[in-house]
User: Fold this.
Amino acid sequence: MASGNYEYQSDFARRYVAQGKAEGRAEGRAHAVLAVLAARGLDVPEDVRARITACTELERLDAWLARAVTAASAADVVRD
Assistant:
């Protein structure tokens, strides 16, 4: 059985598969932001961690990931 090539036939299935993929991408980006902060040895307060992990906007998560590389603190990453 080939995996990864199946096309769902119903709109219902396509919608929820797409939603699951989007959620997975957001979770991955949030994990990346936290991983960069951890690798840099920056403390991540629980409120900042919760904001990062709750975010589902890929563009915002990408911006936070770029900031995480040079930010002085985790709070600076999520500051708008």
In short: The mean pLDDT is 88.
